[in-house]
Amino acid sequence: MDLLELYYKRYTNEVQAEDYVEWANHCLYLDDLEIKKLASMGMEDTLNIFEIEKMFADAMISIQRKAPSKEECLEYHLKGLHSQLLLANEHAISIVHEIYHCAIEHELFEVQINWQEISDAIDDFQYGDNLNEYTLDQMNEMIITHARRMWHTKLGKINFKEFIGQKVTAIDSDVHFIIQFEKGSLIIECPWRIRDKDGILLGESDIKSNQREWKTVKELLIGKTIQDIQLLEQSPLLIVQCDNIFIDVFHASSFFDGWTLTDEKDFYIFSMHGGNIA
Asked: What does the alpha-carbon distance between residue 237 and residue 214 come to, in Å, rounded to a whole number?
């Protein structure tokens, strides 16, 4: 059991003693004595919740981990439910019910709005007149289509206001593809492309086959003003709009970092191996 899911159960008063033991068994790779003690409790016939929680607290201190926030745990739980809907699932309707009710209970209005239409359709199918005459298979297909669309287009919550209005001042291609701003830079070590509203103008593969195209990159970007930055966190894909030009940056490795965006002061994020954002 992941720590975020364990704490979600704690925050929602659903945690059982067995959950702590399951978490400890999942963490045995840390080779920590307190975790081993907690994991060994799985052999007991009955578990005292107060004793187990004390052992869990000792284990958290031992591995120097802090409790995640309730918001982090809710997001993790909802993401886990959402991911189950990316493939055909005979329990799709009940999973949507759980997502929607969780959103209402914890006042997650954006999540509620995202699932409102599909939840209403389910209610009409199950309890209403089913005016559209949906079958169960059609309803499940509707849920999967909706879940996939939202999954791949989910925007990150990071605010990029520090960069809006800045101009691109230089392009450095000696080692990595570096786009310099007035105050900061985007360092790209992964696949990318440059496009306008009509299509792709230039991509990483074009540069590899013809290094002279770096001149075109400079002509396209230098002097342009950053209008917007979007991060599709589950793709993952970073989109930087410079006037009428869009720079798409794709993380394409499970072993290496992909890109770094910094204002060279307080703002610093990068895509880690596997595409996680830090």
From this structure: 22
